[in-house]
Structures are given as C-alpha cells and as structure tokens.
Amino acid sequence: MQEKFLDIIVCPCCRESLSLTKKKIINEEILEGLLHCNKCGNAFEITEGVPRLILNLEERKEIAKSFGYQWEMRAKSKFESNSLLYGETEEQELKSFFRYFGIEQADLQGKVILDAGCGCGRLTKALARFGKEIVGLDISSSMGTTYQTCMPSKNIALVQADVLNPPFRKATFDYVWAEDTICYVKDVRKAFDLLSDLVKPSGKLFVRVPCINRSCFAVKLRGVLGFTHRIPRRLLFCFSYCLAPFWSLAKIMLRKKRSSIKSSAFFLFNAFSPEFIEYKSEEELINWFKENHFSDIELTPDKAIAIRGTKT
Q1: CATH of 3-210+277-311, one of 3.30.479.10, 3.40.630.10, 3.30.70.940, 3.40.50.150
Q2: How far from each other are the two terminal CA atoms of the chain, in whole angstroms?
C-alpha cells in the first residue's frame, strides 16, 4: 500500500486518523508497519502490504478463513482456471461492472473506486486501468495473496476489513461496488448504510444480493442441507468436487450455460462454506437507497437483486 492512501483510511472503531510507525517501505510500498489511533488507542498491523483493520475478528474468524481458503485454492488452480472467475473472463466481468453502473470506461477517469468484497482482486486490478485510485476491501484471510495479484499497480490499495466496520472516511468514493458482499453479514441494513456513507455526493453505489426465489441450485441445496458450513474446509473441498459432475450434467440437461467441473466445484464451495446468507427483497433494498438519499435508483435485470443509485 502506498502512503498516500492513509489520507482516506481511518480507525474502524472511532473513525479518527491513524498514525504510521515501524514501517518497512520498498519501492514506495508499505509492506509492514503499525497503524495507531491516537483517540481510542487501537493499533493495527500492516503485513504483506495489507493493513489488517478488523475489529472483533473472533466473531468473523470463520468466514474470513473460509473465503481465505477458497481464494488460496483458486490461486493454486485447484478450482477454476486463472482465466475464469465464477465462469466469467476478466473482460466479461468488466463489461458487467460497466453495465451494472450504466457507465462507460471514460467515466472512471480521475475517480476513486471501492471494490467492497474484492476477493481475489481480479476486478480491482482491472479497474486500475481506468480509475485514479482503487481500494479493495475484503475480510478474507488471503489478502496477502490478493496483494501479490494486484501489485505492482501504484493506484491500488488493499485492506483486510469488515463491511460492518469499513475503515474509510465518509464521502470518499465516486463509485462503491458491493456485488454479493453484504449478504454475508447478519446486519445487512447496517452494512448497507455504512457503505452508503462512503459515497460522495453525485457518486454511485451498486449493490447485488441473492434472490431467494431465483437462487442457483447450489444455494438452494445449501439451504436444504443446512450443515455444510460446519464441514471442515478440506472435506468440503472434496464434497464440492464430488457433486460438481452432477451439477455440470444437470446444467447441460436443462440447457443452461455450461461450466467445467472445476467451475462447478468453485460455485458449490462458495455456496456451501459461509455460515449464513441473508436474503432481502427488491422493495427493501430500494427503500434503503431512498432512505440514504439516493436518486436515479435502477433495478438491473439479473438472476439476483441488482440495484444502483446516485447519491444526492
């Protein structure tokens, strides 16, 4: 992380500025350090180039490890090939980003963007070609691996943090992207409100959450089984691969978009591993946008519930 990003990062507890000490900098990148809050006294480490700004990690440890394991396995090519993510190429993912926001590439010039729930960092890195500064936030324990993916881009900062305690100044970002992110916290409304606060006036927020009536087979099966998140991760990895051929075959028989065994296993693991997935209705989310002073609220056609709005 470059030192310039400290201007927008704050203590996730009291939201005051942080001071950097004990820093190790190579080629202008802060690889190690300690961030101190002068108000509440909290201290947060920077390791592997990533500030670790999580409060109450014990409460969120399992989901952090679960997503961390998933992204580590993908980095080792144990799931999809490196060219695919959730069955999409990088260019397809970028195309979806612009379609969901209803913008063109030129609209990102000079803009500051938050990728909330950045995962492996593929989209974060791709957006660095167009925007001024890109920040990737994720609770995953594998953010060090994500850092290696995104570097040496100088306009990217990665932060390990929770959307329930986003460590950024209010009204910082021109675009906030939260695709399938807030559904993994129990207080979805709080996460939505906090992300809304990060959007600049005239900036845009995009949120996507799964729809209970249009969920894919993997999510529905998870709901039926109910215990998959308790399976040790290595066993769950094997279990996902055992089911993957049947899911791939079912998609062929139903004439849906085909997926490889590796992609199917990745989808299944992603659906099975979280402790919970919260569902919300279109009406609820649209009302939340209105209550947080967004206009031009649009529902984008999608299997999930996908909504964008502009901050007034």
Answers
A1: 3.40.50.150
A2: 31
Cα–Cα distance between 268 and 250 in angstroms, integer? 14
Q: What is the CA radius of gyration of the chain?
A: 19
Beta carbons of 48 and 64 less than 8 angstroms apart: no
Whole-number Å distance between alpha carbons of 58 and 165: 14
Taking 90 as the threshold, does the pLDDT of residue 276 lie above it? no
215 band by pLDDT with thresholds 50, 70 and 90: low
Longest CA span, the chain: 61
231, two tokens: 């399976």
Distance CA 169, CA 7 (A): 9
Q: Using CA atoms, how far apart are residues 163 and 118, in angstroms rounded to an integer?
A: 11
Q: What confidence tens digit (pLDDT) does each residue in 26-64 have? A: 888 999 999 999 899 999 999 999 999 998 777 778 889
Q: What is the mean pLDDT of the chain?
A: 91
| Phi, psi torsion values for 10, nearest 5 degrees | -130, 170
What DSSP element (H or E) covers 32?
strand 29-37
**What are the sequence ranges of the domains in the chain?**
3-210+277-311, 217-272
Report the distance separating Cα 253 and Cα 241, nearest Å.
19
**What does the pLDDT read at residue 256?**
74
Task: Enter the pTM of the model.
Answer: 0.93
Cα–Cα distance for residue pair 245/87, rounded to 1 Å: 15
